[in-house]
């Protein structure tokens, strides 16, 4: 995937740490959580209501992984009882445009992908 025509092509790498980060940031729940949190900070249950299909365990795991990677901040709110809010971190906010571009790309290209899948499945069945 190295594009040698670009002056910074030598800087582009896809080694183990890069693959691990991309896997963790671009999985199905992470993309949705980041997309939602780019809108505004939310508490855990607000996120669960916003992303209805995610389970509690999956959301907890996703938030912890995003927090570990610096994409999301967990903020304790001094209320009684105390609350916890999740918000996009500065480095996570840099993904906002990229995630929006990916979502636009999938929307625009999904019909062609579905046609390709149908062609593949038709050939595979014979």
Short description:
By secondary structure, the protein is mainly alpha-helical.
Structural features:
single chain, 126 residues, mainly alpha, Arc Repressor Mutant, subunit A, 3-stranded antiparallel beta sheet, 6 helices, 11% strand, globular
Description:
The chain has 126 residues and is mainly alpha-helical. It has a domain at 9-94: Winged helix-like DNA-binding domain superfamily/Winged helix DNA-binding domain (Arc Repressor Mutant, subunit A). 59% of the residues lie in helices and 11% in strands. It contains six helices and three strands, in the order H-H-E-H-H-E-E-H-H. The chain has a three-stranded antiparallel β-sheet. A hairpin with a 5-residue loop joins strand 2 (72-77) and strand 3 (83-88). The longest helix has 30 residues, at 96-125. The mean pLDDT is 89.
């Amino acid at each position: 995937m190295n594009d040698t025509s670009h002056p910074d092509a030598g800087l582009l790498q896809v080694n183990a740490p890069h693959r691990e980060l991309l896997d963790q940031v671009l999985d199905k729940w992470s993309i949705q959580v980041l997309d939602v949190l780019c809108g505004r900070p939310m508490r855990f249950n607000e996120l669960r209501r916003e992303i209805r299909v995610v389970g509690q365990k999956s959301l907890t795991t996703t938030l912890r992984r995003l927090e570990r990677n610096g994409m999301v901040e967990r903020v304790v709110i001094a209320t009684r009882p105390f609350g916890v809010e999740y918000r996009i971190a500065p480095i996570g906010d840099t993904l906002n445009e990229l995630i929006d571009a990916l979502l636009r790309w999938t929307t625009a290209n999904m019909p062609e992908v579905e046609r390709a899948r149908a062609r593949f499945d038709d050939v595979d069945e014979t």
